[in-house]
Amino acid sequence: MAFAELSGVRLFFTDEGAGDPPMLFVHGLSCDSNDWIWQLPHFTAAHRVLAVDLRGHGHSSAPTSGYDPVTLAADLAELLRDRACAPVVAVGHSLGGLVVSVLAADHPDLVCAVVAVDPAYLVVAETLERVAQLLGALESGDPVSLVQAMVAGADPSTTPAHLRCWQRRRVAAVPPHVLRQTVAGMSSGTDSVTSGASGEALLRRRQCPVLSIFTDPRRSAAERPLFADPRSESVTWEAAEHWLHQQHPAELNALVDRWLAGAYAVGR
């Protein structure tokens, strides 16, 4: 375990395992690298694996600004160069799926493949509506309770109580300015990195192979024409929840292994 002193931020990360290609795991909004404890033992058996807390989250420092996806990706690029760990298979959930896509687009030398787990891009209209309402409420309301409500609404009642409790408690530990700025950075208007022409342009700039896993078939269908590499694949788990890597870890791990073996010629 270690901390990296980077340009204006101190990032907490773990660097474990050995084997190529190395992998980078990036969590979502109000979460931290512990999100991946269902994956880390599995993938460190065959790969060098970095798992990081984004700025403002977990054990990393919380500067006054820098919570847009481009800056978050730049932090990761600096970390990868600092650790001499590249190119990586960049795995991200939700916000993390968006951030690793920006990383692949802006720093293509550092990323050999992307795995996006129910990522926060190509957001459908009804979700955009809810996010717009959240943004308005965040201007004057309590960001912790508002984001807790958003997180609770992302999963059905079948989500285990211990996971709901864990997610709710972690939101309470994130500084209010981090919550406000991160949501705003993801969702600044309908034509943003999460949706619209700008979002599509970003995704087209990813030159590496991409595996995306969505819970909504409309989003899978929307991404397929945007792939630059023919080894890319977009799949839908319609019965799964937003935190599908935690509730279906064996299936997710096996899917990533299968895809890497086929698309990237990686064997276990």
List the topology elements.
Layout: E1 2-6, E2 9-16, E3 23-26, H1 40-44, E4 49-52, H2 69-82, E5 88-93, H3 95-106, E6 111-117, H4 125-138, H5 143-152, H6 161-172, H7 176-186, H8 196-204, E7 210-214, H9 217-223, E8 233-236, H10 244-247, H11 249-263
Parallel strand pairs: 3-4, 3-5, 5-6, 6-7, 7-8
Antiparallel strand pairs: 1-2, 2-4
- Helix-strand makeup class: alpha/beta
Order of helices and strands: EEEHEHEHEHHHHHEHEHH
CATH topology: Rossmann fold
| CATH homology-level superfamily | Alpha/Beta hydrolase fold, catalytic domain
SS field, number of helical segments: 11
Number of domains in the coordinates? 1
Q: Can you give the mean pLDDT?
A: 90
Main sheet properties = 8 strands, mixed
* Unreliably modeled segments: none
Strand neighbour order, sheet with most strands: 1-2-4-3-5-6-7-8
Give the CA-based shape.
globular
CATH architecture: 3-Layer(aba) Sandwich
* Share of residues in helices: 40-55%
Beta strands, count: 8
State the name of the first-level CATH class: Alpha Beta
Radius of gyration: 17 Å
Span between termini = 25 Å
> What fraction of the residues are assigned to beta strands by DSSP?
15-25%
Question: What does the model show?
Answer:
Strand 1 and strand 2 form a beta hairpin. This protein has an 8-stranded mixed sheet. The protein has helices at residues 40-44, 69-82, 95-106, 125-138, 143-152, 161-172, 176-186, 196-204, 217-223, 244-247, 249-263, and strands at residues 2-6, 9-16, 23-26, 49-52, 88-93, 111-117, 210-214, 233-236. With 268 residues, it is of the alpha/beta class. It has 11 helices and 8 strands. It has one domain (2-123, 193-263): Rossmann fold (3-Layer(aba) Sandwich), CATH 3.40.50.
